[in-house]
Amino acid sequence: MITSGILNINKPLGPTSRKVVDQVCRVLGTKKVGHAGTLDPSASGVLVVCFGAATRLIEYVQRGRKTYRAVVRLGVRSDTDDAQGTMEPVVDFVVPTDSDVRAEVAARIGEVFQIPPRYSAIKKDGTRAYKAARRGEEFDLAPRKVSIYKIDIHEYNWPLLALEIECGGGTYIRSIARDLGESLGCGGMIETLERTRVGPFSLDRAVNLSDLTAENWSELYLPAGVAVAELPWVELDDANTARVIQGKGVDLAERRDLIVDSQGLGDEPIELALFDANGKLIAIAELDPVGLTARPRRVFAAMERDVLDDRESSRPEGNRSRLD
């Protein structure tokens, strides 16, 4: 019986992320479903949906880098910073040159502070910002530090600017478009937006929401261990697996040389994923860099034994040398 796992959904334009979750609930026949990172109704692409006990891994999915394809329309402002809002053309400006655009795009790469859109799910005094904005309330949102790793310009043909953006969690692409337009003196907003990757989950391997049915979802879900693909990990023998299931720590001192060489341990504990000999995720642990004892913080053994017996190993590919 499948009770937990992950679905990589290709969200279409139109529905909210919550409505996608509701549809997955109906298809799977369960209420324990959550998504790892909101996509606006006007955005499409990768929406990672976790169900059952795998919802406990949502935060690990959210940590993954995200990639977007965005088309920015310059020369106009929108109260929602995208084409869904009330738009107002900007007048009395000079059309930015290619070099102007490239310089301003480059200035937005790195760790930067951005103000979230007024129409966003950020809470202000306990209320979602978009609800306050719809009521016409005046308020300010505090800038937040975000990481923008890369912005590639695919095409600039005034007034449209096509970008590919790689960024960390919490980044608003609408804010990038808005701020880029303001710095160019002409205004800007998102015309179209598609998310093509979240961590290991890519658009080319996503399932169209319209294709997901009660009859086929069990052939399309992914094992929960994929959610921690970017963590260092170690495979345990049966004896140590049993210890972890009981909530006990395991000694990894015999692997000290390999761990130090591959992980470059400092003084702070690190998170690592623990898998059993069959490649099933059994726990997220905290590794003491001095004594090299891994103590389980979240145990998933029961979940994985129910869910993954009919699936290939969920152990990350290519990471074995990191801790094993």
Structure description:
The protein has three domains: 5-64 and 200-219, 2-Layer Sandwich (Pseudouridine synthase); 67-195, 2-Layer Sandwich (Pseudouridine synthase); 231-323, Archaeosine Trna-guanine Transglycosylase, Chain: A, domain 4. Helices cover 22% and strands 32% of the residues. It is built from nine helices and 19 strands. Strands 1, 2, 3, 4, 7, 10, 11, 12, 13 and 14 form a ten-stranded mixed beta sheet that branches. Strands 15-17-18-19-16 form a five-stranded mixed beta sheet. The chain has a two-stranded antiparallel ribbon with strand order 5-6. Strand 5 and strand 6 form a beta hairpin. The protein starts with a strand and ends with a helix.
Number of domains: 3
Radius of gyration: 22 Å
Helicity range: 10-25%
CATH architecture call of the largest domain = 2-Layer Sandwich
End-to-end CA span:
31 Å
Compact overview of the structure:
The protein is of the alpha+beta class and 324 residues long. The protein has helices at residues 17-28, 58-62, 98-106, 129-134, 173-183, 238-245, 256-263, 301-307, 320-323, and strands at residues 5-11, 33-35, 43-51, 66-74, 76-78, 87-89, 110-114, 123-124, 127-128, 144-157, 160-167, 188-198, 201-202, 207-208, 233-235, 250-251, 270-275, 281-287, 293-299.
Topology, element by element:
Elements: E1 5-11, H1 17-28, E2 33-35, E3 43-51, H2 58-62, E4 66-74, E5 76-78, E6 87-89, H3 98-106, E7 110-114, E8 123-124, E9 127-128, H4 129-134, E10 144-157, E11 160-167, H5 173-183, E12 188-198, E13 201-202, E14 207-208, E15 233-235, H6 238-245, E16 250-251, H7 256-263, E17 270-275, E18 281-287, E19 293-299, H8 301-307, H9 320-323
Parallel strand pairs: 1-14, 3-12, 15-17
Antiparallel strand pairs: 1-3, 2-3, 4-11, 4-12, 5-6, 7-10, 8-9, 10-11, 12-13, 16-19, 17-18, 18-19
